[in-house]
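Tokens as discussed.
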């Protein structure tokens, strides 16, 4: 199931963001605030785990790492191996 979020174009223009950039910003915020695991946040941002971690490093945001993150990393590794 997919939900749709309608953002008026003038809001995006005022923020100087494209829709994909807004998704990235939402993912960063939700991960940094502990609301999403890194796996789900990178999925929202439509980025690889490596790209997402690089984004955090460039913004000097410390990584969170818990059991859910470990599970997400394991799943990513499984996908890469298969």
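Sequence:
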């Amino acid at each position: 199931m997919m939900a749709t979020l309608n953002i008026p174009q003038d809001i995006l223009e005022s923020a100087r963001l494209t829709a994909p950039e807004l998704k990235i910003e939402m993912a960063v915020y939700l991960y940094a605030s502990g609301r999403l695991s890194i796996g789900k946040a990178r999925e929202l941002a439509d980025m690889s785990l490596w790209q997402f971690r690089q984004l955090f490093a460039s913004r000097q945001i410390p990584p969170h790492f818990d059991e859910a993150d470990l599970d997400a990393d394991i799943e990513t590794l499984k996908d890469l191996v298969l």
